Amino acid sequence: MTDTNCIFCKISGGEIPSKTIYEDDEFRVILDISPATKGHALILPKEHYANIFEMPEQLAGKAMILAKKLAKHMTNVLKCDGLNIVQNNGEMAGQTVFHFHMHLIPRYKQDGNEEKLCWNHLELSQEELDDVFEKLRQ
Ligand code: 5GP
Ligand code: ZN
Q1: Which residue of 34, 39, 77, 109 lies most exposed, with the fewest beta carbons within 10 A?
Q2: Model confidence, pTM
């Protein structure tokens, strides 16, 4: 299923042209229009799923396998020094396009970004740590 108002449905379906570096029946991989670094690419499923929670497990697995293949290819071709794989879910997590996508971001020495895509480190008390641990353990 696709969403007629979704830009990534239009791009993955070929309705809007894009710099496609890979395509198969289920995915299109494009260059990001506003890249963090040279070669920044996005893996888009052709079906519309807003986020990881909506993605069928099998397709999510295939997206990760594809990310691994492309990470290797991009590293070989671009001779980058590292590569981030990023996937945002929800506005609070930085998602701006609500069609699942994975970012492949080649990293270069002195590419102008922090070494790590950054977050501040929390100082949690033992109590807070125990509390979240008890909630999460399965
Ligand atoms: P998000 O913040 O949702 O994780 O990432 C959305 C990404 O999509 C951004 O990096 C943004 O630059 C990229 N983007 C948004 N609109 C377009 C577009 O029309 N074409 C391409 N190629 N990339 C887009
Ligand atoms: Zn869509």
Answers
A1: 34
A2: 0.95
User: Would you say the CB of residue 92 lies under 6 angstroms from ligand 1?
Assistant: no
102-107 β-sheet, strand order: 20-23, 27-31, 41-45, 102-107, 82-86
- Write out the chain's pLDDT in tens, 138 residues: 778 899 999 999 999 999 999 999 999 999 999 999 999 999 999 999 999 999 999 999 999 999 999 999 999 999 999 999 999 999 999 999 999 999 999 999 989 887 777 788 999 999 999 999 999 999
In the chain, the domains with their CATH numbers are 7-111 (3.30.428.10)
Q: Is the CB of 120 under 6 A from ligand 1?
A: no
- Residue owning tokens 């109590």: 127
Residues with CB under 5 A from ligand 2 (ion): 3, 6, 8-9, 48, 99
**Which ligand 1 atom is nearest residue 87's CA?**
4
Other Cβ atoms less than 10 A from the Cβ of 107: the count is 19
23 Cβ below 6 A of ligand 1? no
Annotated catalytic residue within 40, 101, 103, 121: 101
